[in-house]
Amino acid sequence: RSANSLSEARKVRHSRPGKGQAVRCRPLSALQQNVSAAAAAAPAMEASTVDYKHSLLASREDYDKMYKRSIEDPAAFWGDIAKGYHWEQQWEDDHHTHNFDVTAGRISTEFFKGGTTNIAYNCLDRHVKEGRGDVDCLLWEANDPGTERRMTYSEVLAEVCRLANWLKAQGIKKGDAVAIYMPMLCELPISMLACARIGAIHSVIFAGFSPESIAARILDCKAKVVLAASAVKRGKKAIDLKSMVDKAVGFASRDGFEVEKCLVCHNTSAGGGKEATPMKDGRDVWWDAEIPSHSSECAVEWMHSEDPLFLLYTSGSTGKPKGVLHSTGGYMVMAGTTSRYVFDLQPGDVYWCTADCGWITGHTYLTYGPMLCGATNVVFEGTPTYPTPARSWQVVDKFKVKQYYTAPTLIRSLLSSGNDHVKAHDRSSLKILGTVGEPINPEAWKWYSEVVGDGRCPIVDTWWQTETGAHMITPLPGVFPAKPGSATLPFFGVAPSMVNEHGKAIEGPGEGYLCIKQAWPSTIRTIYGDHDRYETTYFAGFKGLYFSGDGCRRDEDGYYWITGRVDDVINVSGHRIGTAEVESALTLHPKCTEAAVVGYEHPIKGQGIYAYVSLIEGEELEDALKKELTLTVRSNIGAFAAPDILHWAPGLPKTRSGKIMRRVLRKIASKEESQLGDTSTLADPGVVNQLLSNRP
Ligand code: PRX
C-alpha cells in the first residue's frame, strides 16, 4: 500500500476529524499487475458494432447531447426524466444539492427534494392502472427443470399488499428495518416490494451467508422481523435455510436483541414437508398460513424522496461489512432510467438477470429497474449450469428471453464447456447481452458476442457498484461501438474523474484511480449508523471526489477500461470479499495466530482467495487443519468466502514497523517471484525464501 492517498487523506480530514480509517490503495504502478486486468491485455482501438436500433437514441450525437445536459444541469435533466414516474407530491424547483468535499462540511446528496413517491407503486400499481396488469411480471424457474410459476403484475401487486398488511399487523412501520433471508423465489422480490410499499427499510441477506453474518446484519439495523424460507436446492444439494436463521436469531439474542417474528415461506421445490422445518411457537409462522388471510389492498406510504429505501451490506478493505444506504427518489429514477436505456427495456420484454437478489444487481436489475419498465422478469432459483451447461439456453429458449444479464464468471465457465450446449438451443429471441461484476476478459467477451449472441447482439459491459446503486459506465446498445473488455462511456449524469495518486485529474488517455466528480441520483447516501465511516471510506482519499476503489485506464476514444480493485477487496466470481474479513475469520481458529489474504488470478472465478496462515508453535498445515480453517471461514462468513488456497506461513513478510507487505504476498501467490521488487525494507528478508520453499 502506498502512502500516497493516506497522507492526502489525512490532510483532507485534518479539519474534520472522524472515526475509521482513510482509503488505502495500491500505487498506480500496481494497476497493470492487477490479476483481473483484462483491459491491459486488450487492444485499445478494437471496436465492435452490431446492427441494433435503440428505441430512444438514434445516434452517438443524441447521447452526447443528453450527456452534456445531464452533467451541466443535473437538476433539470433528472427533473425531466423523473416526470415519467408517479409522484404524489411534486419536487421543488431547486431539488438537487450535493457536497463531495469533506473540507466543506457534511457529505450529502439530495435529489427531488420536497417530492414524495413510492417505488413499489411505480413498479406495480402504475402498470396495473395503465392497463398492463395482465402482463407477466415474474416467470419463475425452479432449480429442477420442469417446475415453473407465472405471476402477472396484478397478481404480484395483490401478494405484495397482503404481505405489506401482515408486516403492518406486526407493528412494522415506516423507517423500521426488516431482514430478508430467502433464495430466488417469487417471494423474495415480493418481500422487498412489500417493505418498500409501507416505507420499511429492507435488508436482504444473501442466502449463502452464515448465521454469524446474518446475526451481524440483523443486529446492525435492529430488524425485529425476518422474512425467510425453509430451504433451497442449488444443483443437487438441498440446503436448510431456516436452521441458519434460527442460529442467527440465537446469536442476536445472546447479544441482547430479540427477533420478534419470523415469517417462513415453505419452499416445496427444495423437497421435504413442513415437518422438516422446526418452528418456534409464538415467533415463527408459515407464509401460506398467514398471508392469504390478509387483504390484497394496502394503502401506499408516500415517501419523501430522501427517505431510506434499503440497506445492503457490502465488504470494504477494512472492518465489518458496511450497510450501504440508498434513498427513494433518486434510486428509483436512476434504476428505471438505466434499465430503460442500457437494456432498452420496454413493457413486456422478457428479461433475465441471473443475479441473486442478495446482491445489488438483484436489487436494481432484477427487482426495481425492470419492474419500473414493466418488463417480464425471469426469476431463476437454481444454478445456471445445472443439470447441464445447456440449462441457461433452455431457459432462454423456453421463455424467449430478449435481454440477458450475467457475470463474466458464468460466461467463462460456460465457454469452458464448449459450444455445443449453446448451439443446440434456439437463441433467436436474444437482443441484448449484458455483463457485470468484474472485468470481462476479451476472450470471454468475444465468445459471448459471437457464440451466445451469434454476432448480432450488442454486449453491454456495465461498470457500477453496490454504492452507486445503478450503472455508471456502460455501453448503450446500438448507440456507439463497443470494445471487448471496455465498459466504454459514462451514463447520463455520471462524471468520472481519473486521478493520479495525488488526486490530480489525468486528462486524455492514461491510467489512474477511478473517481466520480458529482453526485448522481442513486449515490450511496450514507453507511447505516456511521456517517463518519462513509465520509472516510469514499470521500477522504481524494478531495472533492467519490473514490470507487477501482483502477481504470482511458483510451484515445475516451473509453474506460476497468482494471479492478486497488484496495484490499477481492472480487471472486463477481462477489466482493474484504480480505480483512477472511483474515479475521481465519484467526478465530485457535491454531491460527495470524493470516494474510490476497487475490490471485483464477481462470473461472476471475480472482481466487489465497490465504497465508501462521500457526501456533509446533503446528503444521496438514489436510485436517486445512479443512478446519476452511470450515471456520464458511461458518463465519459463508461458503463463497472459503479460501481456494491455504499457504502455511511460519513468518509473514513485514516492514520494520510491522506492516504486512502484501505486494510480496501477491507476487508469490501469482507465481511471479522473479518480480518481487524491493524487499530490502523487510524486517526479516529470510521470510520470503521460507514462503517460497513452503508452497502448497
Ligand atoms: O471492482 C468493480 C467490480 O465490482 C465492484 C463492485 O462490486 P459490488 O458492489 O459487489 O457490485 C457488483 C455489481 C455491480 C467494482 O468496484 N465491477 C463491477 N462491474 C464491473 C466491475 N469491474 C469491471 N467491469 C465491470 N463491468
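^ adenosine-5'-monophosphate-propyl ester complex. The pocket of adenosine-5'-monophosphate-propyl ester is lined by residues 314, 360-361, 436-439, 461-466, 487, 548-550, 562, 564-565, 571, 576 (CB under 6 Å). The longest helix spans residues 153-169.
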